[in-house]
Amino acid sequence: MILRTGIDTIEISRLEGIRPSIRKRFIERVYTRKEISQAQDRAEALSGLFAAKEAVSKALGTGIGKVRWQDIEILHQPSGQPIVMLHGNAKMMADQLGLHTWSVSISHDRNKAIALAAALGD
Q1: Which of 14, 49, 73, 118 is the most buried (most CB within 10 A)?
Q2: Which residues are catalytic?
Q3: For 17, phi and psi rounded to 5 degrees?
C-alpha cells in the first residue's frame, strides 16, 4: 500500500490583494467553473481551494507545472466536506502512481488558509 501526503498554506490577503484588472483572469485560470460557483468570490474560500490544489499537487510529487491548476478540482459536498476530482495530467499521474483514494482537509483562520491532502494507492 502507498500513502502520499501534501500540505500547503496561504495568506488570505494574497488573493484579496490581486488587482481587479487581473483578478478575473487569475480566477478563471486557477479554478474550475464549479469551484468558482461554490466559492462565490469569497477570498477565504478561494484561498482554501488554492491551498488544497497545491497540497494535492505535492502529494502527486509534481507541484503545479506538470499538472495544471484546473487538473485538480476541489468540490464541496452538501455537508461541506471537500472532495478531490482529478482531470488531465493530474489523473494520469495519479494512475501511474497507483493512487486511487483521496482525502483533503481545509481550514481557515483570520489570516491564513491551510490544506492537507492524503492519497492511498496500491
Answers
A1: 49
A2: 58, 108
A3: -90, 5
Q: Are 104 and 55 in contact, with CB atoms under 8 Å apart?
A: yes
- CATH fit for domain 2-121, picks 3.55.30.10, 3.90.470.20, 3.30.460.10, 3.40.50.1820: 3.90.470.20
pLDDT tens per residue across all 122 residues of the chain: 999 999 999 999 998 888 888 999 999 999 999 999 999 989 999 999 999 999 999 999 998 988 999 999 999 999 999 999 999 999 999 999 999 999 999 999 989 999 999 999 98
The whole-model pTM stands at 0.94
